[in-house]
Amino acid sequence: MFLVGLFMTSCVQEIQPEARPIMAEPAIINITLKTDSDSITAGRTLFMQKCSNCHYIDRPDFFVGPSLRGILKNPLLPVSRKPATPENIVRQMRHPFTSMPSFVFFSDEDLTNVLAFLNSL
Ligand code: HEC
User: Fold this and answer.
1) Topology (CATH level 3) of domain 2-11+35-119
2) Pick from 78, 69, 71, 114: which is nearest to 98 by CA?
3) List of residues 6+ apart from 65 with CB closer than 8 A
4) CA–CA separation, 118 and 121 (whole Å)
5) Overall pTM > 0.85
6) Is the CB of 114 under 6 A from ligand 1?
7) I want to staple 78 with a disulfide (CB 3.0 to 4.6 A). Which of 12, 66, 83, 93 is the partner?
8) Which tens digits make up the pLDDT trace of 40-99?
9) Which among 60, 66, 63, 57 is positioned nearest to 114, based on CA atoms?
């Protein structure tokens, strides 16, 4: 699973944006924000593999993308200026605002775990 995930990230990064998967926007995104340590730990692992090469979490600076420190504690998302809600972060992972690669292959559990980690920052 770890290796498959790693392989998919490198593909997405190498072949984007032409081969970015295009999928219909799901009608309803139903997110339960988890706060247990297992979800946060699993989310941290995913973040380190898939997100940390473009986003800082330990300082407020823009890297390839904006810092995600305290992302769910601010009123607005930093680039799109949409409300900083778990739903809009899931939308960003599935259908990025501009040049971020899509993580449309993330399972619901992956999305929930990444959100649990982001919420802990
Ligand atoms: C290849 C670089 C790259 C990777 C990897 C990446 N991002 Fe991004 N991210 C960006 C860029 C660039 C932006 C600016 C907005 C855009 O281009 O969509 C962004 C913006 C964002 C935003 C703010 C969106 C807004 O509406 O302002 C969030 C939240 C975010 N990324 C989360 C993530 C998460 C979570 C991951 C890992 C699953 C991730 N990113 C992986 C480059 C990246």
Assistant:
1) Cytochrome Bc1 Complex; Chain D, domain 2 (1.10.760)
2) 78
3) 54, 55, 79, 100
4) 5
5) no
6) yes
7) 66
8) 999 999 999 999 999 999 999 999 999 999 999 999 999 999 999 999 999 999 999 999
9) 57
Question: Does any ligand 1 atom lie closer than 6 A to the CB of residue 74?
Answer: no
Q: Left, alpha or beta for 42 (phi > 0: left; psi -120 to 50: alpha)?
A: alpha
Q: Among 13, 49, 54, say which to mutate for ligand 1: greatest number of ligand atoms within 8 Å of CB.
A: 54
90-98 contacts: CB < 8 A, separation 24 or more? 90/29, 90/31, 90/115, 91/25, 91/29, 94/23, 94/25, 94/26, 95/23, 95/25
Where exactly are the structural domains of the chain?
2-11+35-119
